[in-house]
């Protein structure tokens, strides 16, 4: 299936788009396990990763997508793997994993042991490979937003005296990283961010207060981190942001609608597009979209769940798109799954065939809506 000419956008995000991560093929899972046991070399694992990513790119094209990713096939975590590549950041085995609804991840954490910076990054090679095989599709690369280090890292004492100083160095590091990706050909970058969900509920806001942080001031710092990190991006580089409430083995971490920080998100962030979760009641309604105040900001509605296999009723999805269009013009709306299919290498609880059924579902509905 291919997207019709009428449906295609000339610029990302596309009418039918996706967040980026895909279920790891069994061959890749086995190879990673073999590498961990020392049964195969890093070079052998890299060869298998290359081959599986080439297959994945072709599958994305065959499903009708205009943007392609490497599925995050070289990563174990959507965020930690990237953040550990920044100067001054180290990974470590934490005392406990991240807590999701009814399930806990494996034990992993990151800590800041020196000044945060960017001198080089091993994932530049990951992007270069994707760029080289994308062909006529747009190579999309997803990295965690700077806020993820701010929220998730442990900071050793004496390195930073204030949150503002942390943001200063984070911005400088991300500016360097974004320019380096651009220099390698990246024109479609996505920042993944779960930190905003902290502000959506009273429980989340109280957790900030318990840590001695004012929720309003913290939200301002998060917006500053995003806007200043992307401020120097070249005109032909599009940067979107995916706002997530957690995605691990088909469970979630937080709930709540966008209203509490809607003016900041929809009226204050200088990204080119926002990928938003709207696949269930946890995300609230479309009313916060009334704060969208730019005609060049695309809103990607995550109305198709990546957590479960059942296909949504197309008529119901189209009705929800029409409802969202009461707040944002239809020509600024797009459609996608609410999140990736494998934010961590464990993946969500559906099969690869069901995963591709979801992607084709997005493409078909987009074809029908944007004719």
Automatic annotation (TrEMBL):
<dbReference type="GO" id="GO:0008270">
    <property type="term" value="F:zinc ion binding"/>
</dbReference>
<dbReference type="GO" id="GO:0009086">
    <property type="term" value="P:methionine biosynthetic process"/>
</dbReference>
<dbReference type="InterPro" id="IPR038071">
    <property type="entry name" value="UROD/MetE-like_sf"/>
</dbReference>
<dbReference type="InterPro" id="IPR002629">
    <property type="entry name" value="Met_Synth_C/arc"/>
</dbReference>
<protein>
    <recommendedName>
        <fullName>Cobalamin-independent methionine synthase MetE C-terminal/archaeal domain-containing protein</fullName>
    </recommendedName>
</protein>
<dbReference type="Pfam" id="PF01717">
    <property type="entry name" value="Meth_synt_2"/>
</dbReference>
<dbReference type="GO" id="GO:0003871">
    <property type="term" value="F:5-methyltetrahydropteroyltriglutamate-homocysteine S-methyltransferase activity"/>
</dbReference>
<feature type="domain" description="Cobalamin-independent methionine synthase MetE C-terminal/archaeal">
    <location>
        <begin position="18"/>
        <end position="346"/>
    </location>
</feature>
